[in-house]
Specification:
Rossmann fold; 3 domains; 557 residues; alpha/beta; six-stranded mixed beta sheet; 13 strands; five-stranded parallel beta sheet
Length: 557
């Protein structure tokens, strides 16, 4: 099933540009990144909305870059991009539009999807979010005992957790003093109970984020939070009406009004979103309510402006100067032509500590697919593995493997030119050390150090092989003036659109996630068996029945 205007599915390996790229790859086998840095390769360094994207340390020459652009045209990526922005149902397996870009369209613009202009709906929700956020920030919103809210607990999982948790950490310098956000996602009771143990229920607001309001992990944690709140208020002598306690201390981000009301949350405090917003693309929707409460509506809208700036660049800029296109095409080059299976995301910013975890879902849930949009099996590698930690801690952990391991690993190094902590000038020297480390790692990973240079530095001959750094690892360097809501929006949107380009080249649907569903169903079956105390379910494989038997034996009554 294909939406009108969508390009026909093809095998990209059969396209002329793919064949040309394979030949160029073979010809570049003995060319190093250090040598490529001495050649003219226009287009590998660009700036969008004040952020610099430097791809000059990629193992690619100008000819290959030109054929990657041709591949994008031949594979129908431009047509698919235009269909996405127009609201076509490019998520063909779920018959849905893909319109996270509509979440950041400015007020007054129009986008008609299935006969309905969605922009007024988006801004109606944003305006309602802003009212609640300002009430909480100003103290106007009081708990059922009359005390102001000091702690916000966001309960969600996947896209309902990773984006808000990452943004809260990233934008710590913009969070209102006296307000603290906490994020709970794991169904492990240790997560919710240890989070709540440090809080005062009279001063806590809980956001339950679940589109269907049936997500097993989220609802288990929500019920635990509900019980904690009611018990805690009662223990403090504020028993009151349970319905009033829930109404003043719980809000929902969902589309299931009846389930929200049944839980006890006032539907007036429910904020919706739409089926054309995938979970991993939803942090700038109502899912970002905790973010808006933390940094305020003005800064939240600045973040949306950053997203929109990159959207417009991606939508209108020619491919050879289009940053997300280049990011996506280079990722395909590394994965399919250079055989590099993984990318380390290395933010040299402690505030971006959760950014690699956020990208893990964005990239791997989107492009971890083995069939094309038409259901035919792919015959080439698709989504790679993304992972990482902030520098400089990672340098004393896994960088050894990056530099001298037997596998080539690509790296994305992210740098902020200015510190975000208060009293920035007083820490300028320490921040310079951080940036120096980032640039040094970019150099050594890509250029390396050969045996002659090691010998010339006076190293004993028997140690020379141990100190050679082969380099030739592709590195992209992203540098922003400082980490703000706006620049965070620009950065995230660049990766969103890069993921789109990769999936479009591979002819897969980047916007479904069927691989997540089966595990949930089997888990429900096992949960029923645990409650029944039996381990003979014929629907389970022998190994799982054996593990279940062991668990039942170890489990305390």
């Amino acid at each position: 099933m294909s939406a009108p205007g969508m390009p026909v599915v093809v095998d990209p390996t059969q396209l002329p540009a793919w064949e040309q790229l394979s030949a160029i790859r073979d010809g570049l086998a003995d060319t190093t990144i250090g040598e490529l840095l001495e050649t003219e390769r226009p287009g590998l360094r660009s700036a969008v909305a004040g952020i610099s994207f430097d791809f000059t340390r990629q193992r690619i020459d100008g000819r290959a870059l030109g054929h990657l652009v041709e591949l994008a045209h031949e594979a129908g990526v431009v047509a698919l991009r235009d269909a996405m922005f127009a609201g076509a149902h490019i998520n063909n397996t779920e018959d849905r539009a893909v319109l996270h870009t509509a979440l950041r369209l400015p007020f007054g613009e129009s986008l008609v999807v299935d006969g309905h202009d969605v922009v007024p709906d988006v801004h109606q929700v944003l305006d309602r979010m802003a009212v609640v956020a300002e009430q909480i920030r100003s103290g106007e919103w009081a708990g059922s005992t009359g005390e102001t809210i000091t702690d916000v607990v966001n309960i969600g999982i996947g896209g309902s957790d990773l984006g808000p948790a990452m943004a809260y950490r990233a934008l710590a310098g913009f969070v209102q003093p006296g307000l603290t956000c906490h994020f709970v996602s794991n169904v492990d009771p240790a997560d919710i109970h240890r989070t709540l143990a440090q809080l005062d229920p009279a001063r806590t607001l809980v956001i339950v984020a679940s589109k269907t309001f049936t997500t097993a992990e989220t609802m288990a944690n929500a019920q635990a939070a509900r019980e904690w709140l009611l018990t805690g208020l009662s223990d403090q002598g504020h028993e009151g009406q349970a319905s009033d306690n829930i109404r003043r201390h719980f809000v929902a981000v969902s589309t299931n009004e009846s389930a929200v009301a049944e839980f006890g949350i006032d539907p007036e405090n429910m904020f919706g979103f739409w089926d054309w917003v995938g979970g991993r693309y939803s942090m700038d929707s109502a899912i970002g309510l905790s973010t808006m409460i933390a940094i305020g509506p003005i800064q939240f809208r600045a973040m949306l402006d950053g997203f929109h700036a990159m959207d417009e660049h991606f939508r209108s800029t020619p491919i050879d100067a289009n940053v997300p296109f280049l990011m996506g095409l280079l990722a395909v080059w590394n994965r399919d032509f250079l055989g590099i299976p993984t990318t380390a995301v290395l933010p040299y910013s402690q505030d971006l500590a959760r950014f690699p975890a956020y990208l893990q879902q964005l990239t791997m849930e989107s492009n971890g697919k083995r069939v094309r949009r038409d259901g035919t099996k792919v015959t080439y590698p698709t989504g790679g593995v993304y992972w990482g930690e902030p520098g400089t801690g990672g340098q004393h952990s896994f960088y050894q493997l990056l530099h001298q391991g037997t596998d080539d690993i690509a790296s994305d190094i992210i740098v902020c030119a200015n510190p975000t902590v208060a009293g920035a000038e007083s820490v300028r020297g320490q921040h310079d050390v951080l940036v120096a480390n980032a640039l040094a790692q970019a150099s050594v990973l890509s250029v390396g150090l050969d045996a002659r240079a090691v010998r010339d530095s006076g190293v004993a001959e028997d140690l020379v092989p141990h100190k050679v750094m082969p380099g030739n690892r592709p590195v992209s360097l992203v540098m922003m003036p400082e980490l703000t809501p706006f620049t965070l929006g620009v950065l995230i949107a660049a990766y969103e659109h890069s993921v789109f380009v990769q999936g479009a080249i591979w002819q897969i649907n980047s916007f479904d996630q069927w691989g997540v569903e089966l595990g949930k169903k089997v888990a429900a079956t096992i949960e029923s068996d645990i409650r029944a105390g039996q381990d003979q379910d014929p629907n389970l494989d022998p190994a799982t029945r054996g593990s279940l038997r062991e668990y039942l034996g170890m489990r305390r009554a």
